[in-house]
Automatic annotation (TrEMBL):
One of its GO terms (biological process) is ketone body biosynthetic process. The lineage of its organism: Eukaryota, Metazoa, Cnidaria, Anthozoa, Hexacorallia. This is hydroxymethylglutaryl-CoA lyase. Pfam families: HMGL-like. It catalyses: (3S)-3-hydroxy-3-methylglutaryl-CoA = acetoacetate + acetyl-CoA. Its EC number is 4.1.3.4. NCBIfam families: PRK05692.1 (NF004283). It comes from the Eukaryota.
Length: 204
């Protein structure tokens, strides 16, 4: 994270878009703050082995670091988004228990993360394991504060996303996507959004 300043100075910023910076510790947060960052992210894991391999500390140690970051962010009115890796499977430990994911997710939410993204980091999730994981997490964190990030390693990403979207208002989701596309000044590539637009035009 040593090049925060160079990156933030050189990227072309689009009005209305938040450019979040990964801040694994207080030092990283302070560096991001000096660059004028308006949002930060903290990145944990539900697997002990992955946490040690990825950020060189235990889950417990990572949460202690993140808590300090969240406190500093709150003092500076900076929103924080949380991320949890390996929510269904780990390259070192295999399957990850939903209760382990729920515990880390709740910790991040309780610290003040406005949203926590649940990542199937190595793409081993299935609709069944994704459903079980979500059921565990939803016992501790409200659905409107959760997001899901699926990798398509074994061709299951769309099925897993569909599982996660059960009960979601699709029209509002499409509207949100179109709003983002308008802000970025580009057309949507979503087939669902295109189909809905075509259907509305056909009715009018």
């Amino acid at each position: 994270m040593a090049d925060h300043e160079q990156v933030m100075q050189r990227i072309k910023k689009v009005p209305g878009i938040s450019y979040s910076v990964l801040t694994p510790n207080l030092k990283g947060f302070q560096a991001a703050l000096e660059c004028g960052v308006k949002e930060v992210a903290i990145f944990g894991a539900a697997s002990e082995s992955f946490s040690r391999k990825n950020i060189n500390c235990s889950i417990s140690e990572s949460l202690q670091r993140f808590e300090v970051v969240c406190e500093a962010a709150k003092e500076n009115n900076i929103p924080v988004r949380g991320y949890v890796s390996c929510v269904v499977g780990c390259p070192y430990e295999g399957s990850v228990a939903p209760k382990a994911v729920a515990k880390v997710t709740k910790n991040l939410f309780d610290m003040g993360c406005y949203e926590v993204s649940l990542g199937d980091t190595i793409g081993v999730g299935t609709p069944g394991s994704t459903q079980a994981m979500l059921e565990g997490v939803l016992e501790t964190v409200p659905v409107n504060h959760l997001a899901i990030h699926c990798h398509d390693t074994y061709g299951q990403a769309l099925a897993n996303i569909l599982t996660a979207l059960q009960g979601i208002n699709l029209n509002k989701l499409v509207d949100a996507g179109q709003f983002i596309c308008q802000a970025l000044d580009r057309k949507t590539s979503s087939k669902v959004a295109q189909a809905r637009t075509d259907g509305q035009e056909a009715k009018s």
